Amino acid sequence: MKSQGRFHLLTVPRAALVALCALVILATSLFLYPNSPAHAASYCQVTYTITNQWSGGFGANITIANTSSSSWSNWTLTFTFPASGQTITQLWDGTVSQSGQNVTVTNASYNGNVAPNTSTNPGFNGSWTASNPVPTSFSVNGNLCGGSSDGGTTPTPPSTPTLGSTPTLGSTPTSSLNNIMYAVNSGGAAVGSFAADGFFSGGSTYSTTATIDTSAVSNPASQSVYQTERYGNFTYTFPNLTAGTQYAVLLLVSENYWTSSGQRSFNVSINGQQVLTNFDIYAAAGAANKVINERFTTTANSSGTITIQFTTVKDNAEVDGIEILGGSNATPPPTPTSGITPTQTQIQGGTCNSGTTVTSNQTGTNNGFYFSHWSAGSGSVTMTLCSAGSYKYQWSNVGDFVGGKGWSTGSSHTVTYAGTWNPSSGSSYLALYGWTTNPLIEYYIVDNWTGFNPASNATSMGTVTSDGSVYNLYVHQQVNQPCITGNSCTFNQYWAIRQSKRVGGTITTANYFNAWASHGMNLGSFNYQILATEAFSNGSGSSNLTVSG
Fold first, then answer.
1. I want to staple 190 with a disulfide (CB 3.0 to 4.6 A). Which of 19, 39, 196, 336 is the partner?
2. Is 323 labeled as catalytic in the residue annotation?
3. Per-residue pLDDT tens over the stretch 41-82
4. 3-state DSSP call for residue 81?
5. Catalytic: 442?
6. Is residue 161 helix, strand or coil?
7. Does residue 15 carry a pLDDT above 80?
8. pLDDT digit string (tens) for 280-318?
9. Which of the residues 255, 294, 318, 442 is marked catalytic?
10. Any idea which architecture 356-548 has in CATH?
11. Pick the CATH number of 39-150 from 2.10.260.10, 2.60.40.10, 2.60.40.290, 3.10.20.30
């Protein structure tokens, strides 16, 4: 049988044999390369899914997977709508441009970096006329991708939108979520429809008087909302929402401190899902003092809560204001009671306008708080004592001064402060400052400094992490220097210097005292303890601070 078969094949006419070979080759090539070159499948995979559809409109989600062996630092997706009436009307987690049926989607500032075997998920709302067929060919960064499309299961578009499975964060239409549930002025007081800062845990406050550019947002809030912020590592928790219900989260941000990109970056997660990664406000806005809004869609958890966590990558995370928006039928949460308002003490700083002025070296009590003012005598410096723990300083060309408000006898307690600190020249420190006796120790917990580095000529003793930052620990011996017991003293200085500088927040003194003690740096009996402004080296500037604790 084998010889008969071989003889039969050899007797096939030559033309038929050629045709048969060509057919085999063609079939083999179709099997090996059904849609695209092998290189394309190794670079990217795109899945296009219609999440819901109604008469003349639809929502869609696009999953862009990096199937290559290298990370993408940026990505550009291109595809073509099959029908002439298909248009993207609103896109999130990216930027879109459309020319005719040709669509180009580029990454947002926070999701351009896509590692191998991970994906990113832009989504959009669109419109259609005669039909809404799905695209079938996609390219990323010029490389043709493997892909799949799901046109959904609804055979006839309904007259109104219908929801399918629970959408992922940022992938659902948000145009109908405009009913304000919460509006919070982060770091500031109540203004307009925005309530005073609340529902937070951690972080500090900062304010500016600079004019904020609101040209990039629609229906901007009052300038004062954008001029205050909460910064550091902190969390906002918004309760009393409807469990399992979709809400929009609107983060109002502007870069009011740095004047170039690359100086601040941070991450944000909502109910445990990260929505911003290495976010740089200046880079996203293109300028300092220019507000942009970052909008996301999420679902209240089983407790009816939305939790937003801000985590510093470089310098400090920050936000100017937050809005939680529901649908037209959503019921605003009740007015917060004492059981759900933040437990952290909130104080308003920068409010000292007029009061008792101090220009000579002295200590005393003012409005229930101890105060101390000491100056070396050169230059001009004026301290103003205001209500409770508030004070302000104005100084010009000073040789050296230190002063502030606090307690005549220090202790291991939690101190909270807020306000402004604006040195314009020379050197200056913003610190919780105090003395002990037996042993005689001068100590500083430095939250901010400019000019002369307080760590210079000091001995490093390790670090401690507290109050949202790492603090570097140092010890330094002073010889024949002024102290609380005389003008020619020898004593040690203990330092804790914050890496992520700030103006305002909570200082948990026990953490620093214990960290010093763990290195043999023991304190004695407490003398006074103040939130201090210090300046020297012919410096000039001002501060306006309020302390409590």
1. 196
2. no
3. 479 999 998 866 766 778 788 989 999 999 999 999 999 999
4. coil
5. yes
6. coil
7. no
8. 999 999 999 999 999 999 999 988 889 999 999 999 999
9. 442
10. Sandwich (2.60)
11. 2.60.40.290
